[in-house]
Amino acid sequence: MLPASGAADNLDSAVGHGPLRELSDPRGGEVHLRCTNRRVTTTLAAYGQDPRATSAVRLMRFSYPEVGATANPDLPRGYHSFRITTHIGCGQGTMRAAVKAVMEWRMHRAIPVELDASAPRAAPGVEVTVTLVRLVPCPCRIVWTAEGERRAGWAYGTLEGHPECGEESFIVHCDDQDDVWLTVTAFSRPAAWYAKLAGPLVPYLQHAYAKRCGQVLTRLAS
Questions:
Q1: Fewer Cβ within 10 Å of end Cβ, the chain: N or C?
Q2: 155 lies in some domain
């Protein structure tokens, strides 16, 4: 698990350059304790989320211990993990459009997936539920966000009740040649019986989903 200090250096090694905008520190796997903290409450209010409105959801625990580990260059053992990077385009206009699409959920909704979020923009502590085939709710919580001129994005972790357990991040970064890239990083393993039954099909679908994110973001940012 990542402490708040030193996390920025780890993420620098993984994707792009620059400090993390903010990193939650859900020790013991419980974020609701951090929501009583003035810093977290202020962040949620700034993004249009009323912390009181989601207090019941916040009692849900993360379903894995390595919260925040997508910020590390080395991902945890014992999971299926990957990093997939897609070229999105070139220039600062593309970068701004790509960041907006990722931070405001537009990329995910255009895939399309059914996504409900407790705030209009990604921020630490925001609740995100993705519903698969309109039947299976997959509850998650934003673990960290990064926002800078050359790198921005976020990561969310699975909560109890998610068919998988693990974490996934979506980072848009611009290199020294002004090429814009999307890097999707994830580690996960099955939690529900039906996810375990799917076996090797799940990693295939996860890779396909990450590649689809790149395709959709390329279109949205063009």
A1: C
A2: yes
Helix (H) or strand (E) holding 12: helix 7-14
Note whether residue 74 is domain-resident. yes
In a domain, 1, yes or no: no
- Looking up residue 119, the CATH number of its domain turns out to be 3.30.530.20
Token pair for 197: 């039954």
Distance of CA 187 to the CA centre of its chain: 11
Residue 21 lies in a domain: yes
Per-10-residue mean pLDDT for the chain, 222 residues long?
36 39 34 27 37 49 94 93 96 96 97 93 95 85 94 96 95 97 96 87 91 97 94
What is the tally of structural domains in the chain? 1
Residue 214: name the closest of 180, 175, 168 by CA: 180
- Residue 125 is classified by DSSP as T
Report which residue type is found at 201.
L
CA trace torsion 54, 57, 63, 65 (10° rounding): 40
Q: Which alpha helices (H) appear in 65-137, and where do they start and end?
A: 92-103, 106-109
pTM, to two decimals:
0.76
Neighbours of 99 (CB within 10 A): 23
Give the domain extent around 80: 7-221
- What distance in Å separates the CA atoms of residue 118 and residue 126, rounded to the nearest whole number? 6
Amino acid type, 19: P
Q: Is residue 36 classed as helix, strand or coil in its secondary structure? A: helix
